[in-house]
Amino acid sequence: MKSADIRQAFLQFFNSKQHEIVPSSSLVPGNDPTLLFTNAGMVQFKDVFLGEDKRSYSRATTSQRCVRAGGKHNDLENVGYTARHHTFFEMLGNFSFGDYFKQEAINFAWEFLTSKEWMGIAKDKLWVTCYEEDDEAYTIWAEQVGVPKDRIIRIGDNKGGRYNSDNFWAMGDTGPCGPCTEIFYDHGSDIWGGPPGSPEEDGDRYIEIWNIVFMQYNRSADGEMAPLPAPSVDTGMGLERVAAVMQGVHSNYEIDLFQNLLRAVADVTQAKDLEDKSLRVIADHLRSCAFLVVDGVLPSNEGRGYVLRRIMRRAIRHGHKLGQKDAFFHKLVSALVYEMGDAYPELTKAKAQVEKVFAAEEEQFAKTLEKGMAVLEAALAEVKDKQISGDVAFTLYDTYGFPFDLTADIARERGYTVDEAGYDALMEKQREQSRSAGNFKVDYSGLVQLDGATEFLGYDRLTETGSIT
Ligand code: ATP
Ligand code: MG
Ligand code: MG
Ligand code: MG
């Protein structure tokens, strides 16, 4: 079953259960300064959960584009290292706004996954986790659905604090949250990894495919949990992960959509080895960068734009690693439009714009990438304690346009670390100086015209690494 067909089947399934099909919202959350990017399907419904916005429907379903490259949910460092994480992915979701609750939510999910009419996934490959204190969810799984008890794992708060466990979901540090129950797929004993909740959980054997959140609280900045106006449901399933299951492959990068993108990357970069990690990173970053531009973000030195720049420069550097001396990233946009343009007409519409923004960033970074790499190689050859100094990382940032995480990414590949505290101290010093001297900013306004604009939240909200402070 192709990714596109799974997306369609999901929306159709929930539509047949009286859910309104709602289009994906922008990656730049509207009116939500607490959030860097849309990181889950529920983001566009935040105010509905809070009771501050009313819709004409009480059940909805979406295929939501998400980016997790900063803030509370950040998977940038996982890309290229796990089989299941992307910076950009599509989250399939169904939502109840004070309509149905635990019982229907669990039964809907199980029916969609296991019914022969829909996904028809073998029941004995599925594992379930639920929140330790949630007897209700546990009983539904064990008694109604009939999942064997040795495949239902109750996860408590031992993972780090009362509301920090994997089975208590929150969109960010504040906002709607609640206990959850998750469905995992066992990809087989030849792959490393242990069942959810085990010390080896982090591997790629048991892969989480679907999270069903029972939205019950609104967490405020001081940590207080106020009940929501009505118990609600928010679910999220990664399209790429369920596609891997349906296509009988173990990694998201082996699904139809990614195979085509990887081939395009290999063509453009003349890479021989389709398994090369760099191809995967470039294919992943191509998607997040393109959709961020579609949603009005431009590479810049601050806020959301800086996160985009960081992702783009990582992709460009991986091309360089593959021996690519000329600009290549913008040439990949056509392949992405071919793969995803049908589902996202806004991508097709913005194609020329995306190519232009990519090409401009490539051109700018090309001026310093080669020299910066030489500086880094020289430093790598010299250091003895396997740590790049903050000094070198700062020079690479300041003179050669290497974001800190780019230097760290290269260092990590070679088994080195970077002195982050040393780098931070130098950054802080520079910030103090520029605060008094006025700030130099790259002006892109003459280069590109945009429908939507990105909102800069200021350094007090977003650090230069993109996380919310
Ligand atoms: P994981 O534990 O694997 O990092 P998560 O618990 O952080 O996933 P949720 O916040 O529960 O993920 O999101 C709901 C679903 O979205 C997940 O069950 C998964 O299928 C999918 N998903 C989450 N993060 C990613 C990602 N970075 N890339 C692809 N799919 C993802
Ligand atoms: Mg995660
Ligand atoms: Mg998880
Ligand atoms: Mg989860």
From TrEMBL:
Catalytic activity entry: tRNA(Ala) + L-alanine + ATP = L-alanyl-tRNA(Ala) + AMP + diphosphate
Segments forming domain Alanyl-transfer RNA synthetases family profile: 1-469
UniProt keyword annotation of RNA-binding present: yes
EC class (word): ligase
Gene that this sequence comes from: alaS
Shown residues within the full chain: 1 to 469 of 876
Cofactor: Zn(2+)
Compartment(s): Cytoplasm
Written domain comment of the UniProt record: Consists of three domains; the N-terminal catalytic domain, the editing domain and the C-terminal C-Ala domain. The editing domain removes incorrectly charged amino acids, while the C-Ala domain, along with tRNA(Ala), serves as a bridge to cooperatively bring together the editing and aminoacylation centers thus stimulating deacylation of misacylated tRNAs.
Key words of the record: Aminoacyl-tRNA synthetase, ATP-binding, Coiled coil, Cytoplasm, Ligase, Metal-binding, Nucleotide-binding, Protein biosynthesis, RNA-binding, tRNA-binding, Zinc
Predominant location: cytoplasm
Function: Catalyzes the attachment of alanine to tRNA(Ala) in a two-step reaction: alanine is first activated by ATP to form Ala-AMP and then transferred to the acceptor end of tRNA(Ala). Also edits incorrectly charged Ser-tRNA(Ala) and Gly-tRNA(Ala) via its editing domain.
Superkingdom: Bacteria
EC number: 6.1.1.7
GO cellular component terms given for this protein: cytosol
Cofactor note: Binds 1 zinc ion per subunit.
Record's protein name: Alanine--tRNA ligase
One annotated GO molecular function: zinc ion binding
Family per similarity comment: Belongs to the class-II aminoacyl-tRNA synthetase family.
